[in-house]
């Protein structure tokens, strides 16, 4: 961001007194219609996620998605406010940080699914324990989140006259985005590698979930996870390139490209993860039974068996004799395996 000629620190610009292309934090007035549309979509998706989360009891997933959707909604509220005041540092900071870190939480939800997918097909097929996928990629998410938040805060908190600190914040922000690109790419590679191992070892696949992983809904769920990840991957590459040019670069000041490569990509990812919610794709029982231990070096093993139970009933109390009535109850045992 280059300091305009005649810049006076502390002077408050308005659309009547200043040229947005010269003095605005972004060199255009954000579209009201476009940004309101994204805001409504993200709010509707959030409501759907809450409903599905309660229905299928996917608590951790809902938390990740709602944090991401809340960040996206806040970012688009800021862009709507910037339509009337593109010179506001507060609105710019809200927009920059929220729309930068929002997809980090959405990616975290996706990472939660891979461990369960591994359990469903059989964790013995995977090179990596299910919980290690979660630890690694969630850890990458936290690092990316912190770096992006720090970089965005530094870049947007200093006045235009302090170009050195603005550039430093921008470089830190780009580093966080680049790290997120790398983690998403690694996730795609690990996911594809595991599915290849499943295809090559059909005799080793866990028969307990055969009805599930052979179903169309589960395969559609896998496709949705893959498409959502690709959308976030494309979006993150775009933001990395955009911000590497600085806030005065062409990409950072092109709303059409921002809408297509950020807004649309994140919206598509969220729609995929809502229309094929893990509760729909895996099912309530599948999501619960495919849990894995978060303790390093341990796995949760669930076994279902049928135990014969006997109830003594009498059709006529006057007779005084009881006859046995055998029935079977399904019981699921949980074992922590070292």
Short description:
The protein has two domains: 20-289, Rhopdopsin 7-helix transmembrane proteins; 299-337, no CATH class. The chain contains eleven helices and two strands, in the order αααααααααααββ. It has helices spanning 20-23, 32-56, 59-84, 89-121, 130-157, 163-200, 210-213, 216-244, 255-275, 278-281, 284-289, and strands spanning 299-313, 323-337.
Secondary-structure element order, N to C? HHHHHHHHHHHEE
CATH class of the largest domain: Mainly Alpha
Q: N-to-C terminal Cα separation, in Å?
A: 55 Å
Look up the CATH topology of the largest domain.
Answer: Rhopdopsin 7-helix transmembrane proteins
Question: What integer is the average pLDDT?
Answer: 83
Largest sheet: spatial strand order: 1-2
The largest pleated sheet is described as:
2 strands, antiparallel
Kindly state the percentage of residues in helix.
55-70%
* Number of helices in the DSSP assignment: 11
Q: Spans of 5+ residues with little confidence (pLDDT < 50)?
A: 296-314, 319-338
CATH architecture of the largest domain: Up-down Bundle
């Amino acid at each position: 961001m280059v300091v305009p000629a005649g810049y006076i620190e502390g002077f408050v610009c308005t659309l009547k007194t200043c040229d947005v292309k010269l003095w605005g934090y972004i060199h255009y007035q954000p579209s009201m219609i476009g940004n309101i549309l994204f805001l409504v979509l993200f709010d509707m998706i959030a409501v759907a996620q809450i409903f599905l989360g309660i229905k299928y009891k996917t608590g951790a997933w809902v938390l990740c998605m709602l944090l991401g959707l809340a960040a996206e909604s806040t970012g688009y509220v800021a862009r709507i406010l910037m339509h009337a005041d593109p010179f506001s540092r507060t609105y710019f900071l809200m927009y920059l940080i929220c729309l930068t870190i929002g997809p980090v939480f959405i990616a975290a939800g996706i990472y939660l699914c891979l461990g369960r997918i591994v359990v469903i097909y059989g964790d013995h097929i995977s090179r990596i324990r299910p919980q290690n996928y979660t630890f690694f990629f969630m850890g990458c998410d936290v690092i990316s989140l912190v770096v992006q938040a720090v970089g965005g805060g530094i870049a947007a908190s200093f006045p235009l006259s302090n170009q050195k600190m603005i550039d430093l914040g921008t470089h830190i922000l780009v580093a966080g985005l680049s790290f997120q690109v790398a983690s998403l790419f690694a996730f795609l590679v690990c996911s594809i590698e595991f599915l290849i191992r499943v295809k090559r070892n059909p005799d080793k696949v866990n028969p307990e979930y055969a009805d599930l992983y052979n179903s169309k809904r589960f395969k559609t769920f896998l496709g949705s996870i893959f498409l959502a990840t690709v959308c976030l991957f494309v979006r993150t590459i775009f933001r990395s390139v955009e911000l590497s040019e600085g806030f005065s670069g062409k990409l950072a000041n092109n709303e059409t490209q921002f809408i297509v490569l950020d807004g649309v990509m994140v919206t598509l990812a969220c729609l995929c993860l809502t229309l094929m919610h893990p509760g729909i794709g895996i099912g309530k029982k599948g999501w619960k039974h495919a849990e894995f231990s978060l303790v390093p070096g341990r796995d949760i093993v669930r076994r279902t068996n049928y135990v014969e139970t006997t109830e003594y009933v009498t059709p006529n109390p006057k007779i005084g004799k009881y006859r046995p009535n055998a029935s079977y109850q399904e019981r699921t045992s949980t074992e922590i395996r070292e």
